[in-house]
Automatic annotation (TrEMBL):
Protein name, entry field: Membrane protein
Family under the similarity heading: Belongs to the ABC-4 integral membrane protein family.
Region described as Disordered: 59-78
UniProtKB keywords: Cell membrane, Membrane, Transmembrane, Transmembrane helix
Chief location category: membrane
Membrane topology value: Multi-pass membrane protein
Origin: domain of life: Bacteria
TM annotation in the entry: 269-295, 318-344, 364-386, 414-432, 444-475, 496-516, 731-756, 781-801, 821-841
Pfam hit, one: MacB_PCD
Amino acid sequence: MSVLRTSLRNFLAHKGRMALSAVAVLLSVAFVCGTLVFTDTMNTTFDKLFAATSADVTVSPKSASDDGAPSRTGKPEALPASLVDKVAKVPGVRRAEGAVGSSSVTVVNAKNENMGSTTGAPTIAGNWTDNDLKAMEITSGRAPRGPTEMMVDADTADKHHLKLGDELRTIAVTGDFTARITGIATFKVTNPGAAVVYFDTATAQRELLGATGRFTQINVTAASGVSDVRLKQDVASALGTSSYRLQTAKEAADANRDSVGSFLDVMKYAMLGFAGIAFVVGIFLIINTFSMLVAQRTREIGLMRAIGSSRKQVNRSVLVEALLLGVFGSVLGVGAGVGLAVGLMKVMSSIGMELSTGDLTVNWTTPVIGLVLGVVVTVVAAYVPARRAGKISPMAALRDAGTPADGKAGAIRAAIGLVLTGAGTAALFASANSAKAAAGSGLLGLGVVLTLIGFVVVGPLLAGLVVRVISALVLRMFGPVGRMAERNALRNPRRTGATGAALMIGLALVACLSVVGSSMVASATSELDKSVGADFIVSSGTGQPIVPQAADAIRKTPGIAHVTDYRPVDAKLTAPDGKAQNDQVTAADPSYQDDLRRKTVAGDLAAAYGENAMSVGDTYAKEHGVKVGDTMTVAFEGGATARLKVAAITSDDTNVDKGAMYTNITTVERYLPADRMPKNMLMFAKADDGRAKDAYASLKQSLKAYPQYKVQDQTDFKKDLKDQIGQLLNIVYGLLALAIIVAVLGVVNTLALSVVERTREIGLLRAIGLSRRQLRRMIRLESVVIALFGALLGLGLGMGWGTTAQKLLALEGMGVLEIPWPTILTVFVGSAFVGLFAALIPAWRAGRMNVLNAIAADG
């Protein structure tokens, strides 16, 4: 109990000095808890939606897409309407109704503005059924009754200011058609962002499926007292299961959840990974805080030992203080995490992904995880300073000798750090020279971990060398004040190393990702320049196929020399060695070999576009021993089986269409029924000589009525690629900002405690003539040199990681290394400003010290 009282007294006595460490714990715990609450809320939102929209039993075609992605044919798989009556007669069925649904549509207003979501959520069109009443209710107008009427969901109506009577055009693979809004339906549960439109059944069948008498699924409602499982069994007995997929409400909801679960898991674990980085950075802050507090309480600890306290009691006292800090910071962090989750929901709602705070989900595990993580990390971080405190001898402490320096321990530490760094460097070198990406990636991960730990461990040794170099370049111009700042930074290399290491981690990741991102853009740009001969590329960007009417508009554009169709076709390929695998064959026009210049290893690519011929990539050819002249057995999904002669083997040393196998569209048309033939996923166009500028404008005008498609020349394509990678990097940088903020808090805390530690020294300096302005400048310069030390290590380490990663990715076609020097230099210079910012409060407090009181202070 006396240990607890002592710890509580010390904690309250130094609460100001503990504050920034508590903030670091709070931020890290808040990020973890906020991530868990946010993703749990998203799961709850989707679970409620899927549960509300699932029928007791659903009957759908076995070949239907599991994830609801747009069909490559533009038409979803369908069932004959006669099945509805057959299912309705099954014992235990209260009601069976046919439903039509398609996500291969685009809805536009009179200005050709897309009414779909901007967040990637689909636009779903279908017929209004009784099953829809489970999740929606008509809140304005009425359901559609004829071919010129439609109903929209309330979220879409609000977002795009739609009202009853407005006319919208629906673009489907069967053609365009217009209808006026006769009703608005509101979701009873949260709709995460999909745009939903309804038509009457006949219109939905004709316009979305291309034929009446077809449904995409049958919704079956169980009679009273009949379970979903029993109903599924009875329906399966009546229909058989060879051609149909039957799912209970729970199975359908689970399947839908799985389709979005992978995305949510990636988001969740990525954000938790960045929270983990913040925790690691926070460890340095906590270690520094307790190390300095222990050093400042040396005499007090000596008195405790002199009056009978054992090493274990002193050790335990410091750990209990850490426990109090961890509990305090974690409790606040859990609350802040819930607030962060609500903030993220508001941000997502503002960009089109609706999340309601009514679905806010805080599972009991979330605060437990936050508390355990925060407390464990804090106590573990404080263990080394606590152990060091317990080793202080009473007589040394009473003589005010301070915490004894252990030269032997420092030498051992430096040796271990150098060994780890050397081993990590060797692993990175081996990774960069690896012949296979799989083996190299493991070495890369090992090298990153070992070099990071090595730099952290050898930090004090590096501090003595690097700080002197930085000081010679930056501080010497400030005269005596600069030299004092340098000596202060070098006074405790271990502390400087730990403070710099916290900043080093975040900046190393920034530098690494910057190198990889820039190299990806440079490699793709170089590959496009070498490989792409087409002047224009047309794509949807949403996975939707290009509808025939848009394709016709492209072909009729004036100034276009040729247009190339590009259609990926699913097939089962059997090589001459007898091994079979599911893959894709790219069906394209012969002009594609001009639009994409593929290097041919063997044979003639032009011949691959001949009758019953194809090409394969050299990776596939090596794995299966395929040679030019061999015959491949190709079973087209939904069609017949073909035997195609291998006319060419193309190089896979590219990142454009890597591994693609080509054949002529006319060849595929022989083996696939017309209604099973995929539509174009991309289209390429070449302008007439000297008319590229005019053709570009004409092509954009031709597709003005189809806003879902993008027309890009090579400059646009490169810019789009750069913007996409840039946006991804900006998100990552934003998440890494948390770790950098915690690192800045570490610099602030180190300086603040250092000022307290040097109170008497500061008083003496002031007494012999150092002005307040010079004192503040000294502290600011000390902060700058520590920040630049961390930045130099981090940027150097990160560029090493990024360069190694690029060498490894060169095996996958990313052959150009580009160091983003403007970004690197901006970050380095920015680190100096971070140092200045971190020193503002400590320097201000030091400048306000009373000289006489400071001289009289015990430290």
